[in-house]
Amino acid sequence: MTESEVRFGEWVAVRRHGARVAELVLDRPKAMNAISTEMAGNVAAACAALAADRTVSAVVLTSTHERAFCVGADLKERNSFTDADLGRQRPHTRAAYTSVLELPMPSIAAVHGFALGGGFELALSCDVIVADATAVVGLPEVSVGVIPGGGGTQLLPRRVGAARAAELIFTARRVAAAEARELGLVDILAAAGEDRTDALALAERMAANSPVGLRAAKRALRLGHGLDLRAGLDVEDAAWRTVAFSGDRAEGVAAFNEKRTPDWPGE
């Protein structure tokens, strides 16, 4: 059950579900959640608040539009831009994607309908993507004379490999849900209309675990990716030391031995 909602500007909201789950809502339905300069700022502000909230253990990124998660950059806004305008916008849009990518707790994208260009890059910035049967994803930027600039050229190869990412980016093709799951573009395939429900349920399962452990595990996964094994193990060791001497570790061990549900201090 949704307990509260806080707005971050006109087009982004954060809703709380229970004690530990937050929903980051894209809410610009008239534009199919196209990311304008103002909306990019809304996303970054919401993520900054979530990152600072130690009571949040998992975040689900959702959309209020019935037929789209997010269609990417607001090309109507950009149509009137000068080169100088585009240059001034760039730090704002980059900050939006980075803010999602750098959320310290696990993040899940709930995708339905169109998730294209920057919209798909928002999903790629999350740790897990749940897509329903209506989802259509892709990075079509080269078809309008640019390249993926919200992390797509770096995040997609890490998901599906360099050759597959090259094929998808160079052809600008759109991929329907079933093929997207087969290729690894999305992680979990939900029934039509169930992406948000399934993503929130997954977030609840994650959030039942140690808040300190979740953040440390995410840090180890993200920082260790791409390193050689020895360097990666050093990253893991540093993250392990963060949790090994925490209140959560003491509570987790005690709860296990006492056969009860942990009451995580989150410190």
Automatic annotation (TrEMBL):
The keyword Lyase applies. The keyword Phosphoprotein does not apply. PROSITE patterns: ENOYL_COA_HYDRATASE (PS00166). InterPro entries: ClpP/crotonase-like_dom_sf (IPR029045), Enoyl-CoA_hyd/isom_CS (IPR018376), Enoyl-CoA_hydra/iso (IPR001753), Enoyl-CoA_hydra_C (IPR014748). Keywords: Lipid metabolism, Lyase. Pfam families: ECH_1. SUPFAM superfamilies: ClpP/crotonase. Belongs to the enoyl-CoA hydratase/isomerase family. This is Enoyl-CoA hydratase/isomerase family protein. It comes from Streptomyces fildesensis.
